[in-house]
Amino acid sequence: LKANGSKLSGSCPQYANSAVQVKGMSLFWSSAADSATTFYNESAINLMVKEMNIEVIRFAMGVKNDEFDKGRGYLTGGEDLQKAMLMNVVNAAIDNDIYVIIDWHIESGNGYTSDAVKFFEFAAQKYGSYNNVIFEVWNEPKDGASMGTVASHANSVISAIRKYSDNLVLVGSPEWSSHPEQCAEAGIQDSKNNFGCTLHFYADSHSASGDYSSRANQAMSKNVPVFATEW
Fold first, then answer.
1. pTM, to two decimals
2. What stretches of 31-166 show up as alpha helix (H) in DSSP?
3. 107, 136, 181, 230: which one is catalytic?
4. E strand or H helix at 228, and its extent?
5. Catalytic member of 107, 136, 140, 181
6. How many helices (H) and strands (E) in the chain?
7. Catalytic (active site) residue 175
């Protein structure tokens, strides 16, 4: 997948100028209870591909969260465990020829940028040459995090990723990634110009006739694609 003006297109000739949609799952926090982490393995990914026909899987790597962190978040003692689960999920996605989103999964006003840079440099060096891989640099900024703060974080992480990969990068926005229109105008710096803005959408609380659709349209009017990575 590649950013192509207001849409995501493919590198294959038949998709070069047409908008592409991929359908699949976002996993729950990888630092959460066993009922969530049992899906972070090859057999689970294989089953979802075979029985649900998923085209993308999101590796929601728990970074740090007081509610869901069971002492195995990336920044709470679980770095080695998280990297092992990362390899399980990404390898399975590659073997099944589907996309995988490597997501710095944190809900916070702090993106822990230096740690994110270190992690994404590792992930990009290991998997950035595979076209299957997409990078999401901050799951859900909140607690007053400004778009300027998110953009600064994203620019640092993108620079690290670009040492090894030209793959698609996805950038969040304030208020639980509900403002792609702010993201599109934030001056994201990407030497490959291959980034999009995320939109997280919940049907129970986010009216389809409300601001969310218009925000996505505003972002796309700025020639930046929008990718709903959580819904």
1. 0.96
2. 34-37, 42-52, 79-96, 113-127, 147-161
3. 230
4. strand 226-230
5. 140
6. 8, 11
7. no
